[in-house]
Amino acid sequence: MKRLAAAAVLVLALGLAGCSQKKYSLASPAANAQPLTLMLDWFPNADHVGIYQALAEGDFAQAGLRVHVEVPSDPSLPLKLVAAGKVDLAISYEPELLLARAQNLPLASVAAIVQRPLTSIVSVGSKHITSVSKLHGKRVGDAGIPYQHAYLTTILAHAAVPVDSVKEINVGADLVPAMLSGHVDATLGAYWNYEAIQLAQMGKRPNVIRVDQVGVPTYDELVIVARESTIGSKETEIRRFVQALARGYQSVQSNPAAAAANLVRANPGLDPKLQLASVRATVSSFFPAGNHPWGWQDQSQWNAYGQWMLNNGLISNAQAIPNASTNELLAGVGIG
To answer: What is the pTM of this model?
Structure first.
């Protein structure tokens, strides 16, 4: 996952065509099906369960698509590759997309997969960190990403905890190992639906503080990103993809265990017990509140989060915020 090792600043790299990726599709669509390439944000996991469910059940094939899923060799690649036109779509994150747009990369989100933040402050139960106030005098690890630093600053200010009373430590990708070794007392960047579950299954009784409940404005954790020109040139294909993917996630909602099994079947290295628990924990977050279609993105929420990024100096280009997301390709919206 990107929180473990993603670069904070997105710069369009040279020589992208030479990057080696894992490519596969699970369906056997008709010979005249339209090809579409989707790059994940990082290794396959429970957040992607609807993608593999749609592949397994033939939803993309029925939509006339031949979908190829690619797994990046580096979590900083997906937005670079979609901006360069090397892939049609990429899974990414609202904060990363806004950073990319602030650097004038012509990208936009066409649907939200995970409708709320997963990022959390996680600690093992023996540390007794059950509230932000208990971070006073503690060591908090993160992946060194600037907006994680801004999250911590915002959270501490919201709870009136002096920033200088908490020691922030960059632990890179070692969020869970840093906690288990005692190198840090808690980590900011672990997910409540993944690392926290992993720790619980290890008997570590984790305490979880979700960032959006302690001062950080809410945002869509996982989104589908396309190049703005591709949204125009492949509008029909992307619309069919998004709506087929919606059917995949609706199937997950109906039978999480079967969907988790399909995810693991497609990716045998995954831990079945962890993936099933994570899928079950995340199901409700795959769907928007209210009477909105799957993939809905709240424009006021995007604007508020973008303004928070501006206020915290994470982006300086206010034009990165308008039109960063569109709902026009969702079921029942636009011409779909």
So the answer is: 0.89
